[in-house]
Automatic annotation (TrEMBL):
Its EC number is 5.4.99.5. Keywords: Transferase. One of its GO terms (biological process) is chorismate metabolic process. PROSITE patterns: CHORISMATE_MUT_2 (PS51168). This is chorismate mutase. It is an enzyme of class 5 (isomerase). GO terms for molecular function: chorismate mutase activity; transferase activity. The lineage of its organism: Bacteria, Pseudomonadati, Bacteroidota, Sphingobacteriia, Sphingobacteriales.
Length: 368
């Protein structure tokens, strides 16, 4: 299924001065000096295309720094006048949109805490009506693809065609090395449903700590995302928000130099031929996998009927344990990750149980 949104290509509204596209700047504008000093150094790297800064900060707890407010727009404009960099801010309500547009902000973005709320997104969309400004929509805090798509649709329906998504990871109960789980498959699903939508990655908010950022950023580039939003601060150690994840402009520059830019396609005819041969092999193997899965399910059905006729429960835990153990051991010999083998087996097993449950229940209905 493809969704029908009227979206302009990124190149028609974003002047990418250096590949990959990098949007950078502090998490929050704190003081005029901090913002200007950061902006100057970012500009000097020659690798940053847009300056970002949060001036209205939705914080998890009241009492934390909630942003410097409207005065930050003046500082951003000074930074823009001095560096020539277009400026981007987060907006979270109609008043923010009005002020940002009046101040000549070049790009607006909607934060993760706003995308979760359709009322908020609609309020922002209504305020955008009649304005031709680029808008980037961060994914919602929770891993809900429809909510993300819904927000993009609301903004698009307000007439915004210079639209992009930002993948900033998802909150999860489970504590891991990441501040927000990347859950790449959600970003990939969005790309599949809306191939024309530019998707940028925000490794800063995924990682939560600066050491991890280069790995996530590289992975995003390898998944063909169209740019990166990375937080940078003149002195991250004293940053008022998100201190652990901000990098200095110098560190950002070094990080960008380390990125490997791979192409989505190669013009080399030899490469294209070899790729076609390998893809053909993959197609054949996939066909075999599904054929075998079909055969397996037929036997599962036979077993279901046999269990039904002998009044035996569907699930025998000892048998399931045995399957798990044997197959994961075999999988590891074949160099398959244990976690992967287990997930595949669980999927197959739950489908088998579903089929056998249907067989058992059909009998009850017949008897009844
Ligand atoms: C931010 O960009 O500083 C921010 C608040 O991000 P998010 O909405 O992704 O949490
Ligand atoms: Mn931040």
């Amino acid at each position: 299924m493809k969704l029908n949104l009227n979206i302009q290509p990124l190149s028609s509204w974003m002047n990418v001065t250096h590949q990959p596209l990098v949007i950078s700047g502090p998490c929050s504008a704190e003081t005029e000096e901090q913002l200007l000093a950061t902006a100057r150094l970012l500009k000097a790297t020659g690798k940053v295309s847009v300056l970002r800064a949060g001036i209205w900060k939705p914080r998890t707890r009241p009492g934390e720094f909630e942003g410097i407010g409207s005065i930050g727009l003046e500082w951003l404009n000074k930074a823009k006048a001095e560096t020539g960099l277009p400026i981007a801010v987060e907006v979270a309500n109609a008043k923010h949109v009005k002020e940002a547009l009046a101040a000549g902000v070049d790009i607006l973005w909607i934060g993760a805490r706003s995308t979760v709320n359709p009322f908020t997104v609609q309020e922002i969309a209504d305020a955008l009506e009649g304005h031709d400004v680029p808008v980037m929509v961060k994914n919602p805090i929770n891993p809900d693809l429809s909510l993300w798509i819904g927000a993009l649709e609301r903004i698009n329906r307000a007439g915004i065609t210079k639209l992009a998504a930002i993948h900033r990871g998802f909150s999860s109960f489970e504590k891991t090395a990441f501040r927000n789980q990347p859950m790449w498959d959600l970003a990939i699903s969005l790309k599949t449903l809306l191939p024309q939508l530019p998707i940028l990655n925000d490794p800063s908010h995924i990682c939560g700590s600066r050491e991890l950022i280069p790995f996530i950023a590289q992975k995003a580039l390898d998944l063909d995302m169209q740019g990166l939003m990375i937080e940078a601060h003149i002195d991250p150690s004293v940053a008022w928000t998100d201190a652990a994840q901000q990098v200095t402009p110098a560190a950002l520059s070094e990080m960008i130099d380390g990125f490997v830019l791979r192409k989505a396609e190669s013009k080399n005819p030899d490469f294209v031929d070899k790729l076609a041969v390998m893809r053909e092999k993959i197609d054949q193997i996939d066909d075999q996998i599904f054929q075998k899965l079909g055969e397996r399910m037929k036997i599962v059905e036979q077993i279901g009927e046999y269990k039904r006729d002998n009044d035996v429960t569907i699930l025998q835990v000892s048998r399931w344990d045995e399957i798990l153990q044997k197959r994961t051991a075999y999988g590891s010999v074949l160099k398959l990750e244990k976690d992967f083998t287990e997930k595949v087996l669980e999927l197959i097993h739950s489908e088998s149980i579903r089929k056998q449950t249907a067989i058992m229940n059909a009998t009850k209905a017949e008897l009844g």
